[in-house]
Amino acid sequence: MTSLTWPGAALDRGRLLRLLQEYGVYAALVVLFAIAVGLDGSFVEMSNIRVQLFQVAPTLLVALGMALVIGTEGIDLSVGATIALAASVVPLYAGYGLFAALAMALVLGAATGAVGGAMVAFARVQPIVATLSLMIGVRGLAEIVNGNSAKPITESGLLDLGSRSIGGVPEMAWIAGVCALLTGLLVRRTTFGRQLVAIGDNRQASRLSGLPVRRVLITVYVLSGVLAALAGVLIVGHGAEADPANQGLNMELDAITAVVVGGTPLSGGRVRVLGTVAGALFMQLITAVLTQHNVHTSYTQIVEAAIICFAVYASQERGTR
Amino acid sequence: MVQQEPGPGSDAILEVAGVDKSFAGVHALREVDFHLRPAEVHALIGENGAGKSTLIKVMTGVHRPDAGTVRLAGREREFRNPLEAQAAGISTIYQEVNLVPLMSVARNLFLGREPRRFGLVDTRRMNREAAEVLGRFGVRVDVTRPLRTLGLGAQQMVALARAVQVEARVVIMDEPTSSLEPKEVETLFSVIRGLKEQGIAVVYVSHRLDELYAVCDRVTVMRDGRVVHTGEIAGLERLKLVSLMLGREMSAVRDKGSTAFDSDSHELRDGQPALRAVDLTVRHRLHGVSVDVHPGEVVGLGGLLGAGRSETAKAIIGALATEQGSVEVEGRAMHRRSPASSIRAGVVMLPEDRKAEGVIPNLSVRENISLAALPRLSRAGLVSQAKQDEIVTFFMKRLRIKASGPDQKVGDLSGGNQQKVLLARWLCLNPKVLLLDEPTRGIDVGAKAEVQGLVDELARDGLGVLLISSDLEELIEGSDRVVILKDGRVVGHLAGDDVTEDGLLDALATAPESPDLAAAPEPPDPATTPESPDPAERPQPAEPAAQAAPAASTGPQPANPADPAGPAPGEPREHPAKESQS
Amino acid sequence: MTSTALQPAPTPSGAGSDERAARVPVRERVASQVQRHGALAVLVLVVAIASATSSTFPTWNNISSILGSNAFVWVLALGMTFVIITGGIDLSVGSMFALGGVLGAYGSRHGTWLAILLPLAVGAAWGSVQGLLIAKARMAPFIVTLVGLLGLRGLLQALTDEGATTYLVPAHSWFRHLGAGTWTPVLIVAALFALGALLLTRTRFGATLTAMGGNEHAARLMGLPVARAKVLVYLLSGTLAAGAGALGGARLGSGVTTIGVGYELTAIASVVIGGTLLTGGAGSIGGTVSGVLLLAVIHNLIDHYFSQYGSAFTDTVNGGFLAVVVLLQTLLSRTQQLE
């Protein structure tokens, strides 16, 4: 008798877990939003929402790249440093206009990604190690390029990029939204996206199926670098200054958190773009709610840590069973 | 010291009685009894999945039996982990050396029981004792060097020394010779005999029959999780042993088998082979294997576990690095083989390990089928949904893939349907040669018949097929001819009327021992000169040689070129066929 | 053939294995030597050049400032060596260092013993939580310790009212002596490293750590207590980090809340530069000593010559070193796979 009831119970638990993994982040987002509005009606005012969007956009951009990397069973710790690198070159090229500065930053982001990707794909260094060395080194490089102090930015194109709104929504958020859409298309609709996910799920089978494993891996890290550099330019524009020593600090943690909370498993083989968007929004919202209600940042940080721990544990259960 | 015919079980040092073990509902062991006497070398044999490894793991505390008992020296024991079994005197050495390659030889030998002085490891004494112990095993090396700087054979010896050192009463050896050189095998044997003289019992797992006869006293044969035979090895015919392992009685071949293969052979096309692999050599695994596959032909690769069948397939597509050897596809040589380049050339492989090397479990049926064909289904990197759906629907229907829809996760499908999905992945590329490694293993009877029928059909459509199967019936009825491997060498060919179970069993049992091991002078290497008995019919590889080609390369030969007592060779025929079976 | 085989005694096959072993490729041997002693060689080289070209470098003043001010931070690298040798990683040590300092300063107001025991207890407690999550719940070390990095920093902020409260070590406290001067810190740290080396090379626990990093499956089959060792190693790392933080607090005279950011990276870099394989299974405390000294000397030189760039230059050099060493290690393990 007991042996008959047991699998049923296990199944229910498994289904619950799966539901939690699939839709948990959306439900949590809705609940949190409701709580936020319930606590303070002014939360839904456009001005507040705009503030939140300004803050979440760069994190989301970085998280999108991170989601792709994690989809291949990798990790990219160098994104924060890439932001700093992008920030450091913006003042140098701002005089030539927005596009020169942007192009230069993106190229450097791509180069950083290519170095990390090459170490992972060709030298077969573990992703965490390869990108860790970049994380340390590239930020140092950025600070050297920039010099000691933060540099103010006066180029109007850049400033507009960081502050202007279209239809009430910040340009930064539009950019992040478009990138999310493109990433979604990339994952779902393109050869590259399907190959990426297959490689993350079962690398040996993918190799035996003739997929270009190395090329895909390098490209993924390059994309992550480019997105991080784009985020860096936006941050500089929004803050009206380039400060490589502080900009992008801990961004890799925020991005990983958004991806993991969004339900993308660290074990690879799946990229949830919409989940990542929801994850980034959720983390932004929780910080905002706690801060607005005068909860100390220390507790905010502890809450964040607990959420990461829970999210990883929940997403892991599926992998083992 | 040698025991004189002890009563069953009574004085057994290790006794397993009525053990059952299942994993997720699959029975791995059913009511297994196993008696090991002191000072005997007991062979444990069986094909893949027969339950040998599970039985070993039950005896060594890795698994706990669902039912039944394990007794050591008369006392019932329940080992919770390998350490407890080890402490009780059961030591194990595994096929792959399970040591720590970066640590020193001495460290590896003494890990977990280092000699200590004042609570600290006494390094000097450890090194001295390690050198002494290893010396007795014929390994004279600097014991402070990292283990990985030793040859595989010496590493295996270190593992053996470690196993014996713990005052073992029982030593279990799982395929200990698979990475040893012939000379090292001899050392191993002398060590085993030494153990026996000390009264230690040895369980010896190996698929090399020659070794069993050389060193073992008794043998237990397992099949499908049961013990099918236990007895003295002396006086047991090889043929009998092989048929016990495979579960096929001699001369019990039915007129019409139960597989879904059409018993008619396929009409052979003329011209050059679709695939020609020559002299493939992989260290320790393959020694100059050559195979031809013509369009429209199913070539079986026969052999026991560990004969090098899967390795041959992997070496052909470049998934396994070869030391030498070449592969031609339709006469064009393949340089720098890799899975990707082989696929482009039209050679695809269905891997044996579906889970690890085949399916992408979290992707849908649609994505798994179209995975390899993606570049062809897309324009500018964008996958065409229409084209993809067209192909996927076609193959799901054609192969009768049972899934809730193309969006179902492949990981949730049954084994048979997974296999069909993998087959579809390759078929939508229009390959020229299909390498099938155990295509029907672990799938249910219905799906099995479907897959077999499909293979038949594909060959009729002109595909060249290389079929690897441990299911004798499937191999015999599915193949137009069979290349027999043993210890990584081609030891025989069956074609035409010789493609029978009797012929195959006989060839497996009597094939020459690997040349280095055999006391007899080395037989002519059949692998490098497969057509040597009838050189007249050998085609010039370059020229089409329309009439002669099919017969020549398939030329029926005695199963064992060096042994005239092989199955009676049929007359060489232009078109080998199996009409006589029906 | 069979007749010789009947002798249970050795056979000539030993010669064969000797021969084969002697064929270890030169490239690999060089790589292995560079790996093991590279940091030391570079250290000697850098010190020699610096001493020859600079008049301020070889002064006692400078040397004592290199040693005294950094010594406690090096203890993080000691704990990290153990963790990395098992194939894991501990990102929480920087935060733990800071927390240890605050707890030490807080405890010192109630007595020296509390100043020492409180940080150690908290470090051990959180370390074992991390170890349990990694060994029993099988979560990735990197994630678990990342949670530690964030959570401990948060706890630290909470304890100090968001950094508003600074706990001072009472001026008369004996606790201050532990961190004062050059010799006390250096001797304490040297003793810890010596004990660490003993633990790693001369105890069964150390052998278990190395074995599980080299081949966890084999270590399990050999019956080594793998799960227990895993918990213990994170416990050890947490305790060392908290203790080092407390001593750092004793030296500074207060619990500085902003300290320790990025220390985990420096610790990882010095361990790896010291020749410990990031994949686990090989490494030495001596190597880590060379690694930390090398980075400290380079830092000192950069401060001296490129003071306008400050720590940025050091970071770049650290990152570059790390990349080079990791690539070298991969090369080494690649040649090993080919065997």
From TrEMBL, chain A:
It is a multi-pass membrane protein. It is found in: Cell membrane. GO terms for cellular component: plasma membrane. The keyword Cell membrane applies. This is Monosaccharide ABC transporter membrane protein, CUT2 family. Keywords: Cell membrane, Membrane, Transmembrane, Transmembrane helix. The keyword Cell membrane applies. It holds the Pfam family BPD_transp_2. It comes from Actinacidiphila yanglinensis. InterPro entries: ABC_transp_permease (IPR001851). GO terms for molecular function: transmembrane transporter activity. The chain crosses the membrane at residues 23-43, 49-70, 77-94, 100-121, 165-187, 216-236, 273-292.
From TrEMBL, chain B:
It comes from Actinacidiphila yanglinensis. Coiled coil: none annotated. The keyword Nucleotide-binding applies. Residues 558-570 have a biased composition (Pro residues). Keywords: ATP-binding, Cell membrane, Membrane, Nucleotide-binding, Repeat, Translocase, Transport. Residues 14-249, 268-512 form the ABC transporter domain. It is found in: Cell membrane. Residues 514-582 are annotated as: Disordered. Residues 543-557 have a biased composition (Low complexity). SMART domains: AAA. SUPFAM superfamilies: P-loop containing nucleoside triphosphate hydrolases (SSF52540). It is a peripheral membrane protein. GO terms for molecular function: ATP binding; ATP hydrolysis activity. It comes from the Bacteria. One of its GO terms (cellular component) is plasma membrane. Residues 571-582 have a biased composition (Basic and acidic residues). This is Ribose transport system ATP-binding protein. Gene3D superfamilies: P-loop containing nucleotide triphosphate hydrolases. InterPro entries: AAA+_ATPase, ABC_carbohydrate_import_ATPase, ABC_transporter-like_ATP-bd, ABC_transporter-like_CS, P-loop_NTPase.
TrEMBL record, chain C:
The keyword Cell membrane applies. One of its GO terms (cellular component) is plasma membrane. Signal peptide: none annotated. GO terms for molecular function: transmembrane transporter activity. It holds the Pfam family BPD_transp_2. Residues 1-22 are annotated as: Disordered. InterPro entries: ABC_transp_permease. It comes from the Bacteria. Keywords: Cell membrane, Membrane, Transmembrane, Transmembrane helix. It is a multi-pass membrane protein. The chain crosses the membrane at residues 39-60, 72-93, 113-135, 142-160, 180-200, 231-253, 265-298, 310-332. Its main location: membrane. It is found in: Cell membrane. This is Monosaccharide ABC transporter membrane protein, CUT2 family. It comes from Actinacidiphila yanglinensis.
